[in-house]
Design a protein that fits this description.
The chain has 7 helices and 6 strands; from the N terminus they run ααββββββααααα. With 568 residues, the chain is mostly beta strands. It has a domain at 2-45 and 496-564. β3 and β4 form a beta hairpin. The chain is extended.
Length: 568
């Protein structure tokens, strides 16, 4: 019965979809003509905010204090005995001899002889020998050995394979093209130019300069240097000496030696015995005993000797020498030179030239060509090979050799030689000169000579020894601890306005303003529930013609979106 009562409502809804404004055919149907004022109805749903208590877990960092064992390195001072090598410089006194020069200045008057040269020119005949070569031819017999080859002939059989060609002659016809030359003779007139020579005689005057030699006799003064030897004696200090053998004591080398310290007796409770613990080993520097070294020392000596010396003294001599000077004086002269000029005069000529042209005409021909086809056939053969060996046999031979000897024969010749003689004329002169004599005086001196001595010096030093000591160290660490926190959160709730509509049908209606609100809504709840209601709502204009989407400004959906229901 309820289904039949809902049919008119469904028909009214469908008619409202097709028309612009529909009226209800049933007493409780809704009119959708003016959808805008319906949103502002007092029966529209309202929203309110309530505080909701929720519990959530929060992780907070907390700092804790603990202890941990750390191996700490502790340095302890330990005294160590060591030995180091130290070099010490010592001095010893050494005597030595020094030759000190003592200079003395003397003045002496010396008479010396100067030889003045006097030159004379003479002519004499000189007989000289000239070596003239005389050649003679001789013969001698030479014995020599020749390696003569001796040949021997041998035979051996060689098996070999021969590839024998088998020839077959065949014939084929070949077509080819031949170019046949066709010669044609033509003639043409050629103009050409010939250059003719025209000779012309001319003369010209040439001025030239001739250098004429003029001889002139002059004289000049020449200064010559004359060198005269002078004998004198001087005292010279000659250094000598001898090797002397000396003995010297040298400190011994420093040697590193391993030394063990005295040990101790320690009681061992496990064996109830005294156990000997050897001492620690250390390295000590020990100096070896000194050694005696024999060495040779050069002892210098100084001796005085007189030496004969020659000194050359130079003097200047003036001499007048005549000489001849030849000068070339320029002299101007003239001469007439004939010359010939050759001119080339062009002359035009013409001639008839015959020439032949050759034109190639192609002609097809054919010929029979014989060709040979060769195929290789293997054939076994053997042959006797003769080979010759050569052996070298020595053979003695004799030959006669001709050789030529050259003998130089002396031949005397005579020639006139002009020579100049110089006669030295002695001339006595005196001069006063100062000279210095040096005398070496021996003087003994002493000096301190340093030498190094190496000594072992014991010393103590403090060494830092590392030692690990376990230590408890406090430290802090951070850990996240979970904690439950209760807080209030605002929540928005959609509810109908019960005070405006009363407790009638509007309180039980949906918050959707586009839903059907009639008196029979409760009886048709089963038919209008679910997908059919949603389909009808979409057709009635919640999205198109109702006014929530299309007529948004007048519908009020922008203001009361939660209560309109169009957004869901």
């Amino acid at each position: 019965m309820r289904k039949f009562l809902a049919m008119p409502v469904l028909a009214g809804l469908l008619s409202a979809v097709s028309g612009s404004a529909a009226h209800a055919a049933y007493s409780s149907a809704v009119s959708y003509e003016n959808c805008g004022p319906v949103v502002a109805d007092a029966c529209a749903p309202t929203t309110y905010t309530t505080m909701k208590t929720i519990t959530k877990t929060v992780y907070e960092p907390q700092t804790f204090t603990g202890t941990k064992t750390v191996n700490q390195i502790v340095y302890e001072d330990q005294v160590v005995n060591k030995t180091r090598l130290e070099k010490e410089t010592q001095y010893r006194e050494v005597s030595y001899t020094v030759s000190k020069p003592v200079y003395e200045t003397h003045t002496a008057v010396k008479t010396y002889t100067v030889k003045r040269p006097v030159y004379e020119t003479h002519t004499k005949q000189v007989t000289y020998n000239v070596s003239r070569p005389v050649y003679e031819t001789h013969q001698k017999t030479i014995n020599y050995t020749v390696m003569r080859p001796v040949y021997e002939t041998h035979e051996k059989v060689i098996n070999y394979t021969v590839k024998r060609p088998v020839t077959e002659t065949r014939t084929k016809t070949v077509n080819y093209t031949v170019n046949v030359p066709v010669h044609e003779t033509h003639s043409k007139v050629v103009n050409y130019t010939v250059m003719n020579k025209v000779m012309e005689q001319k003369e010209r005057t040439v001025n030239y300069t001739v250098m004429v030699p003029v001889t002139e006799s002059l004289s000049r003064t020449i200064t010559k240097k004359v060198t005269t030897p002078v004998n004198y004696t001087k005292t010279v200090q000659v250094s000598g000496g001898s090797w002397q053998t000396t003995s010297e004591e040298v400190a011994g080398p420093v040697v590193k030696k391993m030394v063990r310290e005295p040990g101790t007796w320690v009681f061992d409770p496990s064996t109830c015995k005294n156990v000997y613990c050897p001492g620690a080993c250390r390295v000590e520097c020990v100096q070896c005993p000194p050694t005696t070294v024999t060495k040779k020392i050069w002892v210098p000596t100084c001796e005085t000797k007189e030496v004969n010396c020659v000194r050359y003294e130079t003097s200047c001599v003036n001499e007048v020498v005549p000489y001849t000077v030849t000068k070339c004086v320029p002299e101007c002269r003239t001469k007439v030179i004939p010359y010939t000029i050759c001119k080339m005069v062009p002359e035009c000529r013409s001639k008839t030239v015959n020439y032949t042209t050759c034109r190639m005409v192609q002609e097809c021909r054919s010929k029979e060509v014989s060709y040979t086809v060769c195929s290789i056939v293997c054939e076994q053969k053997s042959k006797t090979c003769t080979y010759t060996t050569c052996k070298m046999v020595p053979e003695c031979k004799t030959k006669v050799c001709n050789y030529t000897t050259c003998k130089m024969v002396c031949e005397q010749r005579v020639k006139n030689v002009c020579y100049t003689t110089c006669t030295m004329v002695c001339e006595q002169k005196t001069k006063e000169h100062c000279y210095t004599t040096c005398k070496m005086v021996s003087e003994c001196k002493t000096k301190m000579v340093p030498y190094c001595v190496t000594k072992c010096v014991p010393y103590t030093c403090t060494v830092k020894v590392a030692k690990c000591v376990p230590t408890c160290v406090p430290y802090t660490y951070t850990k996240c601890v979970a904690r439950c926190v209760t807080e209030e959160v605002p929540v928005t709730t959609c509810a109908p306005a019960a005070d405006a509509c009363g407790a009638g049908d509007c309180g039980a209606a949906s918050c959707d303003p586009c839903a059907a609100s009639a008196g029979n809504g409760g009886s048709a709840g089963g038919l209008f529930s679910g997908r059919l209601i949603r389909a009808i709502k979409s057709k009635l204009g919640c999205n198109s013609g109702c006014g929530c989407a299309a007529a948004a400004p007048s519908c009020g959906c922008e203001v009361a979106t939660p209560s309109c229901g169009c957004a869901s």
